[in-house]
Structure formats: structure tokens, C-alpha cells
């Protein structure tokens, strides 16, 4: 671990609490605001000197957000963190993979509860992210809006009366707001309805991606649903529309789960108990197998098949069993076989402790 950093893997993010509205289907809700500075070239066109000026502004903003000497926010220049710490931040959804492309001139502000992460020098100068547990886009938006106003008191944003907030990518023009909801959809996957629903969502301005957003694959029936357009709509309209879209997906997922129970409860219970049996007895398990089995066990928990495991266990295990998180908890670089041993041990102990 670097001298500047810390063991991020040992901290539990607020979004991992397993609480909030519609927690049976919705893992987390995120609001992200893209902002650029008026007097600076956008990141793809910045010189290293200009990038470092923006990086210094990020540090100053972190200090300014800590009103009256509080320590709510901490500043982490990525160049001072080691590769494992950076990867843990990705696994916890606190930064994007793109931020690592220029780690030497990038940084992130993170709140103590990790509900807030503000990326500096990613695709845009600032990416303000607020991440909450369950279906709570409104709360995430209210916090993001307050932080946006606080930051605007220290810098001048690039803004156009016609196009709104100016961003590197044209799809973020306007409000610069991207809402994203992480959903667990095993019912729709097992009843083979998901592809049809995804096709329908694209027609109403929503995008469906994998566990880690754009370019990532779906794992464990986990899917991110986000708005596609930011221009021509107000922030409240975007949030309300995404809320409506996800609420309908939640309704259909619950209906699919009920159909699975009614169609062949014994078969579903068998799949759940087999998954639980493997996870609580395996001595070695790969990440891909672990997340698929955890998905089935989580389904069993929310349907009342397994009654002794709290739902909050699953975000913790989904993140905690990723490659970098396992290694940081172990305090060492591990090869693939060693990680599989550590992963199995972590899951087994956590599930059997309940």
C-alpha cells in the first residue's frame, strides 16, 4: 500500500448497506454531473501543465468542502496511490476505468462514507458522483446539486445559454446529468425476458450496461440502467423519467420471480440451495463462478427461500471478492490460484457467520 493511500477495501461504502426503497431489485442509485471549467481546454486537449493546474484546483475544492475544519472529504491524487488501490476504487464504483488512463494528472475527492466521489481530469474536468443504496435517485440528485453549487462558488463552469453545460462528449451536453441504477434481474434472465425489455428501454431513452458501466459485461444478473439524453430536458425531468423506467423494470422483475416460484418452486429452491451449498463449502472459487452463485443466493434471500442471510451481505461480497479488493485485504499480491482460495474463504466465512 502506498504511503499516501489507505486500505479502501476495508471500508464499507454507503451504497453497500443493502437498504433503501426497492432493495429487493435495486442495489444502488447514482447521479453523476459532468462539469468543465470556462478558462481551460477540455481534458483531451489539455497540456500537462494545464492538467496539473486543474488537479491543484481539485485539491483546493476538497479543502473548501470541509467546512469549519471538518474531515468529511479527502483528496487522493491518483499518482500517489499504487495500482491496487486504484483498482479497488474502480471495483467500489468510486472512479471510472477511464480516470486511470492519465493517473499522473488525475485525482478524486471522496467523502468519508463514500457516498460522494468527485473525479478530476477524467473525460471532463470534474465528474461529481453521488451513490446511494436502493432506489434513491432523488436523494442522490439533491446531494449532487448541493455539491455542484458549492463547487461553482469556487470556479467558473463552461456554460452556454443555448446548449447548457459544455462537455467533452456531445451526449452529455445540457444538464450534464447521468442517472444510473444498478439492478439485480435474475427473474428476467431466468424467464428469458431480458433481451426484449432491454430493446424496449432503448426506445424510451434508457441505456442498459453491465456491472461496471460502458464496455463492461453483465455478471450475476446485475445491470446498470441509465438515461441516454441530457440535452433538452431539465434535471428533474431526467430523474423523474429514469425513476419511472426503473419502477417498471422492478415491477416486471418481481412478476418474473413470482412466475418462477409458481411454475416450479422445487426446481428454483434446488438451484438456490445448490448455489448456497457450493459457496459455503468450496475451498477455491473463481470470480466468475462466485458472482453467478451469489446472484442465485441473493434471489433466494429476497424470495424467502433462505431466511438467515441479510441482504446487505451481497453488495459487500460482490465488491469484496473482486481481484484488487481481495489482494488489498490480504496485504499482498496474489496469483490466480491464491485469489481463488482467498475468495472462497471470504465467502464461506461471511455466509456461515449469519
Description:
By secondary structure, the chain is an alpha+beta fold. It has a domain of 96 residues. 43% of the residues lie in helices and 16% in strands. Strands 2-3-4-5-1-8-10-9 form an 8-stranded antiparallel beta sheet, with helices on one face. Strands 6-7 form a two-stranded antiparallel ribbon. α2 crosses α9 and α6 packs across α7. It is globular and about 65 Å long. The two termini are 31 Å apart. 44% of the residues are buried.
Which properties best describe this structure?
alpha+beta, 10 helices, eight-stranded antiparallel beta sheet, globular
What percentage of the residues does DSSP assign to strands (E)? 15-25%
Q: Give the biggest sheet.
A: 8 strands, antiparallel
Helix content: 40-55%
Task: Give the N-to-C terminal Cα separation.
Answer: 31 Å
Strand order of the largest sheet: 2-3-4-5-1-8-10-9
**Uncertain residue segments:** none
Secondary-structure element order, as H and E?
Answer: EHEHEEEHEEEHHEEHHHHH
Distinct helical segment count? 10
Mean pLDDT: 92
Report the C-alpha radius of gyration, rounded. Answer: 21 Å
Helical/strand content category: alpha+beta
Number of strands: 10
Overall form: globular
Q: What is the oligomer described by this structure?
A: single chain
